[in-house]
Amino acid sequence: MKTLKIAIQKSGRLNEKSVELLKNCGLSFENYKSSLISTVSNFPLEILFLRDDDIPEYVQDGIADLGIVGENVISETEVDVSYLQKLGFGKCTLKLAVQNNSDIQNINDLNGKAIATSYPVILKKFLDKNNIQADIRTISGSVEISPGLGLSDAIFDIVSTGGTLKSNGLKPFADVLSSEAVLIGRKGEESNPLIIELIQRIQSVLRAKE
Ligand code: PRT
Ligand code: ZN
C-alpha cells in the first residue's frame, strides 16, 4: 500500500503537540530539528515538516495526504479539504480589539474605520456578512502595535490568554472565529484504510486524555 504523508508544523506553537500526538499513536520516528522529512519505521507514513501556512494547500493538492493545522489557517487559505478530527490543542479565538480609550464599542462602529490584520480573508467575510464597510490593512505580524502607531483604528488578531492585547493597551470587543488544531485530509481519500487506522489511533489517544 502507498506510504502516507502527513504535514505538520516545523516549528512554532503546534509543532510540539503535533509530534507528541503522533508519538502517542505509537509511531516511531526521528525528530531532528534540521530535517524536513522523517520516515516512520513502524507504519507506512512519512512526516513532512512545513510552515503552517503551506499545510492546507499541500493537502488540497495531494502533496501530503494528511495535515495538522489550525482551523484559522484553513479558513484563511480557503482550501477544499476534509476535516477529519479536532485535536484539542492550539486553541485560540480570532477577535476584534481596540485601544482601551477607543470610541469603538461594537462592530457597527467599525464603518469607515481601518482594521489591521494578518487574516484579511476571514475578516472580509465577517464584515461583508454584517454589512460593514471598513478598510482592511493587511500586515504580516506585530498587528497589536498598529493602533498605537496610528496605522489602524482596530485590529483583528488571534488571542489566547489575552496577555498580548493587555500589554499593548488593547481590549477585545467581538469574537469572530474560535479555532483549534485539526487533522485534515485530502478530499476523496477518507476511505483509505491507513487513514482510517491512523484516525482510530488518534481518537483513542484523545479519549485516554479525557
Ligand atoms: O512559522 P509558521 O508560519 O509555521 O508559524 P506561525 O508563526 O505562522 O504560527 P504560530 O506558531 O505562532 O501559531 C501556529 C498556530 O497556533 C496558529 O495558526 C493558531 O492556530 C495557533 N495559536 C494558538 C496561536 C495562538 N494560540 C496565539 N496566541 N497563534 C498565535 N498566537 C499569537 C497571536 O497572534 C498573538 O500575537 O500569540 C499572541 C497572543 O497570545 P496571548 O496568549 O497573549 O493572547
Ligand atoms: Zn505561519
- Looking across the biggest beta sheet, what order are the strands in? 2-3-1-4-11-5
Unreliable residue stretches = none
Q: Which small molecules are bound?
A: phosphoribosyl ATP, zinc ion
Mean pLDDT: 97
Separation of termini? 33 Å
Compressed to H and E, one letter per element, the order equals EHEEHEHEEEHEEHEEH
Helix content: 25-40%
Q: Pairing-aware structural class of the strands and helices?
A: alpha/beta
Number of discrete domains: 2
Radius of gyration: 19 Å
Number of helices: 6
Task: Note the beta-strand portion.
Answer: 25-35%
Query: What is the CATH superfamily of the largest domain?
Result: Periplasmic binding protein-like II
Name the descriptors:
single chain, 210 residues, alpha/beta, D-Maltodextrin-Binding Protein, domain 2, 2 domains, six-stranded mixed sheet, five-stranded mixed sheet, 11 strands, binds phosphoribosyl ATP, binds zinc ion, glycosyltransferase, ATP binding, transferase, nucleotide-binding, ATP phosphoribosyltransferase activity
Structure overview:
Pathway: Amino-acid biosynthesis; L-histidine biosynthesis; L-histidine from 5-phospho-alpha-D-ribose 1-diphosphate: step 1/9. Keywords: Amino-acid biosynthesis, ATP-binding, Cytoplasm, Glycosyltransferase, Histidine biosynthesis, Magnesium, Metal-binding, Nucleotide-binding, Transferase. Its cofactor is Mg(2+). It is found in: Cytoplasm. There is one protein chain. With 210 residues, the chain is an alpha/beta fold. The chain folds into two domains: 4-90 and 180-209, Periplasmic binding protein-like II (D-Maltodextrin-Binding Protein, domain 2, 3-Layer(aba) Sandwich); 92-179, Periplasmic binding protein-like II (D-Maltodextrin-Binding Protein, domain 2), CATH 3.40.190.10. The protein contains six helices and eleven strands. The protein has helices spanning 15-24, 55-60, 71-77, 120-129, 163-167, 193-209, and strands at 4-9, 37-39, 45-50, 66-70, 82-86, 92-99, 114-117, 135-138, 154-159, 170-179, 181-185. It has a six-stranded mixed β-sheet with strand order 2-3-1-4-11-5. Strands 8-7-9-6-10 form a five-stranded mixed β-sheet. The longest helix has 17 residues, at 193-209. The relative contact order is 0.21. The structure holds phosphoribosyl ATP and zinc ion (ZN). Phosphoribosyl ATP is lined by residues 9, 12-14, 51-53, 70, 72-73, 90, 92, 157-164, 179. Zinc ion binds at residues 51-53.
